[in-house]
Amino acid sequence: VWGGFAVDNATLTRFFTIHFLLPFIIIAMVMIHLLFLHQTGSNNPLGTNSNMDKIPFHPYFSYKDLMGFILLLMILTMLTLLNPYLLGDPDNFI
């Protein structure tokens, strides 16, 4: 897929294209998640009117998503600040 051991222009173009587009794809998926799932609720995927015995969806799951994002950000921050070379390639130090 990447073109063997030699890193040429085509390989770098593919690599930078994927790394440029990936955050936008993730943001689009998050927006779709927030728009469709948080609007109607997980217990009402069709969006029909069923207000009887329905637990309020928005506050709990929005805070849960926010806490998950903060936890992920804290883990990534601790990883990069405490041991920045942990996920690096050992061949870079030869």
Protein architecture, described:
The main subunits of complex b-c1 are: cytochrome b, cytochrome c1 and the Rieske protein. Residues 1-46 form the Cytochrome b/b6 N-terminal region profile domain. One of its GO terms (biological process) is mitochondrial electron transport, ubiquinol to cytochrome c. With 94 residues, this protein is mainly α. The protein folds into two domains: 1-46; 56-94. The chain is built from two helices and no strands. The longest helix is centred in the first third of the chain and has 32 residues, at 9-40.
H and E order: HH
Q: How much is the radius of gyration in Å?
A: 21 Å
Helical amount among residues, as a percent range? 55-70%
Which class do the helix and strand fractions yield? mainly alpha
Taken as a percent bin, the fraction of beta residues is: under 5%
Mean pLDDT: 78
Count of the separate structural domains = 2
| SS element count, helices | 2
Sum up the overall morphology in one term. Answer: elongated
The biggest beta sheet reads: none
